Amino acid sequence: MVIKKIFNNNAILAKDTNRHEFVVMGCGIAFKKNVGDKVDESLIEKTFILKHKDASEKFKLLLEDVPTEHVSLCYDIIEYAKNILGVELNDYIYVTLTDHISYAIKMFDENIKNSNVLIWEIKKFYQKEFAIGVKALEFIESELGKRLPEDEAGNIALHLINAQVNNSTSKVEDIAHQTKMVQDILNIVKYTYNITLDENSLNYERFVTHLRFFFQRLNKKQIIESEDDFLLKQVKSKYKKAYECMLKIEKYLEMTLSEEEQLYLTIHIQRVTQR
Fold first, then answer.
1. What is the CATH number assigned to the segment(s) 172-272?
2. CATH code at 52-167
3. pLDDT tens digits along 150-159
């Protein structure tokens, strides 16, 4: 493995005998080294293998502007997130999260607050990702001695949600918008029935999960269709109030849902509103 480019004393772009490129980090790995020199592999601490070419190129550009310790810190956060979530994350997470956290640290240093208006919803709907965000704040404090506000745990969570492979075509802004829409729909249900929903119930969890995947289907234009409206007619007759509530949600969404989507949504509303 030889050095192809030096970013700083602790970060280089290296290539192996098969001409594969890797971003490699390690304390003093490029000290007194030149392009073309052999890499001292005993000094390697972190290796970034980004399969997506565009993500790889943007990551290299990022390394020229972002402090090495921020890049290293985000690597640890991402590896921790992978282990906890047990899912594959899109390569872009190394670019987007590193860029965001580095900027958040800069904002913190300048005493500029960056509020997250969706913090409450993120805590509730994406508990696992938010918990990782909180842990990330601990990583940052441990490494840099800076305790970023809880709002940043929510921002980190949004990046993790976005980076999960099923959401790889979405943007962080889309995920934030979807989270707000889930809350709006829950409010429609609460106000229609004039009740407080049991957020600890299994039916509540199923309803929120259904809504999250429903918005994913909307994004990917994968709306469920059905040629048989018999079940919907039965449900419409049996659960009139739930069906009326579903129509309010449909109006809020400003779209006509397929009969199958109407059916599932009505059933979930019926279940979540029952004691």
1. 1.10.1790.10
2. 1.10.1790.10
3. 999 999 998 9
